[in-house]
Amino acid sequence: MCSALSYRLLGLCNNFAYVVMLSAAHDILSHQKVPAGNGTGPIPPKANSSRYDCNPISTGAVLLADILPTLLIKFSAPFCIHLFPYGLRVAICVVTAWSSFILVAFSTTTVQSMAGVVLASISSGLGEITFLALTSFFDSAVVSAWSSGTGGAGLIGALSYLGLTEAGLSPQHTLLVMTIVPVIMQASYCFLLSPPPQAPRCGWGSCTQKSLRAPSVTHQPLLGDNITHWNTPETQSPKLSLQEKGQVVKGLLKYLIPLAVVYFAEYFINQGLFELLYFQKAPFSHPQQYRWYQMLYQAGVFISRSSAACIRIRQIWLLAVLQCLNMVFLLVAVSYMFIPSIYVVFVLILYEGLLGGAGYVNTFHCVSEESQPEHREFAMGASCVADTLGISLSGVIAIPVHDYFCYLP
């Protein structure tokens, strides 16, 4: 019970900075400056400007800064991260997340802001692969708890940024308030997470491997009722060869490729189309519309990531097809601007989030169920690459798409 609660908090805190940076992308590209009234009223379209009221730089640039470091970490970490104790990894996540809020809050140029976004990406990427690998030492409840927590990070992060800016705080002060979140993450790891005897744990001082205290340790698989007995310390954390790791990844491709497609489509919508889905006659300014889009997307993600106990979907490819159809429809909507009301877009974005969250939680449950106990820790960590790869590709494509539409009269 305590571990499940800890994993919810860890998931929430781990993804919080990443989500906030995407929610603040429109403000970041404006150097954290908003219109008079803090963007709380409609803004008349600028003379001689594009009908899409574009920023000079696509929000896809913020997405790339927020995801490429994560991609690098996830590609390399499964092959070397075991050399670093869990406590050290968590400490790095906490420091980089806290620094990201400070740097973006006090930045005066887009370059400085992007550097802060990169720090948030490092924190989120390292944290995800660390905590998902650590789930291999716990029972099945922590996978759902982690997924629910990361979904909650999306909703609470986007909603808190929207709420605080709507209440009158500047983006800078809003980001400073959020520096408390990395502190909560460290406290959750140190005081709430109680590792089972076989899990390695490292605090601020020394590292210990508690499983070495006994010659025989009972290891409970992540999902399922069978109990595997590890008779020697070496078999508790098996050393997989490069060939074995390649075979594990090959067996997971039927889930990882559809997950990458799901995330490509949804983040192309989020960072390529959100800013262009601008309704001049809506009762919200352009910055407000962008924040509402992000909040509703994250609400959908939270609902579906928290649904694993009720609904299980093994056909991840079906979610990928539905998300691609959603992407194509919204791309056509941006091109021809035929959607009559922003509230129609609100519903579509909520649906987008539901598909994305379902893809994430069901993929990791399938990976956990099908992995052999000695492969599970590596498989859970390596599977993180799929969504990040899809997001990275969407950011690359979103930038030229943004530029194409913004040069239209």
Automatic annotation (TrEMBL):
Q: Which residues form a coiled coil?
A: none
| Location within or outside the cell | Endomembrane system; Lysosome membrane
Q: Which UniProt keywords apply?
A: Lysosome, Membrane, Transmembrane, Transmembrane helix, Transport
Q: Which SUPFAM superfamilies does the entry mention? A: MFS general substrate transporter
Membrane topology note = Multi-pass membrane protein
A Pfam match: CLN3
Q: Which residues cross the membrane?
A: 86-106, 118-138, 144-163, 175-194, 316-336, 342-361
Q: What protein family is recorded?
A: Belongs to the battenin family.
Query: What name is this protein filed under?
Result: Battenin
